[in-house]
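Retro notes - structure team

What went well: the batch runner handled both jobs without manual restarts.
What didn't: labels got mixed up in the shared folder, which is why I'm recording both outputs here explicitly, each with its sequence directly above its C-alpha cells.

Job 1
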Amino acid sequence: MDTAINDFVVAIVGGGLCGLSLATALKKRSIPFTIYEARSSFVELGAGINIGPNALEAFRLIDNSLGEAIAKLCTRNEQGKENVWFQVRLGAPSGEYEDARLITEVQSPPTGSMTVIRNELLQTLARTAGLGNARFNKKLVSLSQDFSSVQLKFADGTDARANVVIACDGIHSATRQAMLGPNHPATNPQYSDMGAFRAVVSVDKLAAAIGWEQARNSQMYLGPDAYVVMYPIERAQKVNVGLWPWHRVPWSSKEWVVPNQREKMKSIFESWGETVHRIMDVMGDPPFYATHHVPHLKDIHQGQVLLIGDAAHAMTPHQGAGAGQGMEDVYVIAELLTHIDKTQPLQAQIDAAFFAYEAVRFKRADQVAQTSMQAMEWLADFYTKNITLAKLEEFATQADKRLRWIWEDDIAGQATTAVELMKSRM
C-alpha cells in the first residue's frame, strides 16, 4: 500500500557495502532513509577487498569513527613494509634476470596494502548504520516517478515511496534495469575479456613453498601474457591469490564462475617460473572467475533516481580501486543531500544536487574504470624473454606514478565543488 511522505526521505536500494556506507553517512547527517535489501539479511560475497588511501579517507569523511574502526579491521603487510602497495616481481626468468626478481616496491602511504574481509566490513557497517531502517526481502521490480516522489514496487507485492532513490544494488542492479529498460546496452553487465583463477590459501603453506617475505607481503608477478597478484587477508592467516591471463575470447557460459580449473590453469601458466608453479601447487583445484563490468553510461540519474557505486560503474579490479570509488560516491552525495531544504520546493533542489553530483563524480569514476581495463593489458603485456634493465626501470617509474591521481585526490574538495555547483543552480 502506498504511504504518504511527510518528510524528506531517501530510499537506499541495496544493503551491500555501498548501501550501508550511505546509510551510515545519512544517519550521521540526520537525513531520514530506508534501506531496501533483496536478501533476507545483509550478506557480502567474496574474500578480501582493497582499501586504498582514498577509500580510507572517504570512510573517515563519511564518519570518522567508521574510518578508525575499518583501519583496525584491516590486514596489512608485515612491519617495515606497511606502506608497500605491492612488491612487483618477474614471473619467469628473463635474459640475465632470475625468476621472482624484484622490479619495484610500489608505495601507497598511509595504507599500503590494506585489505579487509568483505563480510567483516559489511557487519561493521551494519552495526554503525543500525537495522531499524532496514527492510529485507525487498527485491525491486519497478519504479515510477511524479513531480514530488518515486514509487518503488517490490516482488513481494509491497511498495514504498521516497523523495529520492539512491541505487546501491551493485553490478546486477535492478534499479539500473528499471531505469534503463531491458534492452539498453548498459542494463546488463558485460564480460570484460578477462578473468582469474582464484584461491584463498594458508599463509604457512604458501611460505613453505616460496618463503616468508613473498607469502606474507602483497606480491605481483609479471610473466608471459598474464600477471599474478596475491595479498594477505584474515589478519595474515590467509592469502588471497589470483592468476590473471589475458583471455581475449568471448565468454559463452551463463555462469561467471567455473569450478575445478586446475588443468587449464597449469596449461596457461606452463611457461612461467618456478615461484608461480609453487604457488599453483598450493592453490589446489581453483575455479575460474570471469570478470564483468558495467558498460559506460551516458547518464547515471533519471529524475529523482541516482545510480552510485557498482550500480553505476562496476569495474575490473586491476587497480584495486572499485570500492574506493564507491565510497567517494557515498561521501559526495551525502554532503549534497545535507543541503536539501525540505521547507522549499524539492524538485529543483534534487535536480541541482544530482547535476552537481554527476558533474563532479562521473568523469573521475569513469576514468578509474577505463584505466583499470588498460592496467590489465599494461601488466599482462610487460614480460618478454630478454628484458633489459632500462625496461625494468621504466616500469618502476610508471608504476610509481600510475595510481597517484586515484590515491591522492582531494575527496573533501570534490564535495565542496559539488555543493558550490548545486547552490549555483538553485
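Job 2
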Amino acid sequence: MAIVVVGTVFVDIKGFPEDLYIPGGRNAGSVQIVHGGVGRNVAEDIANVELRPVFVSMVDDTAEGGEVLRKLRNHRVNTDYVVTTPDGMGMWLAVFDETGDVVGSISKRPKMDALVQLLDEKGDEIFSRADSIVIEIDLDKEVVKRVLKYAKKYGKKVYAVVANMSIASQRRDFLKDIDCFVCNVQEAGILFVSDYSDYTPMQLCETLSQNLANAEFPSMIVTMGSRGAVYADKHGERGVYPASTVIV
C-alpha cells in the first residue's frame, strides 16, 4: 500500500536580466526551467522521506514532459498513473527585473479531461490499494468528485493541499468531506475572510478551532513559517507544533 497523490505538474520558466531590465527591449540574462506543481512537489517530498508514493497526474507529450517523469522516477515516485497527453502540464512564464520582482507573467492551467478519463477507467485499481490520499483541492471539480467517491467507497482518509486558494475557498462542500486540509496562514485568512498575519500560534489555534466547528470542516493544519504550525479539529482538539531547525 502507498500514499496516492492526485495533483498537477507545472513547469516554471523564469527569466532574469543581467543588468537593468528594459521593458519592451532586449535583455541579456539567464532563463531557468523549474519543475513544479503542488501535487508533483508533494509526491517528490514524500519520496524524499523514504516513502513510495503513487502519483496520479498528467504530463505533456513533449521532451519536457518526459524529463518530468524521469526526475520523478529517479526519486522513486511511482508514475504508472501519470498520463501523457497534449496540454497535460501547466506552465508559468515569468520575467523578473534586476531587483527580483516579477514584471510580467503568464500562467496556463492544464486541461483535465485525460485525468478524468484515467480516474473513470482505473479509479478502483488506484484507490483500492491506497494507504491514504492527498489531493489538490482546487483541481477540476469532476476530478475532486471522483477522488472523494473512491475514497468513500474504499474507506480511505483524504488530505487536501492547495495551489489556488481563491478557487479552494469556493469548495466548502468538498472541504467538509476532507479528513484534513493543509494550508499556510495567508491561505487560511482567505478561506475564513480574516487577517491572521499578527496572530500568535496559540491565538490562531483557538480561532481555527472555532471556525472549523462553525464551518463543519473536520480538521486543518496551518503552517506559520518560522513560528511553526497549528492543528485543530471541529471537536475542539487543537495544538501547536514549533518549527524545527533543519540543514538544507
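One thing worth noting from job 2: The domain at 2-20+28-135 is CATH 3.40.1190.20 (UDP-N-acetylmuramoyl-L-alanine:D-glutamate ligase).
We'll revisit the folder naming next retro.
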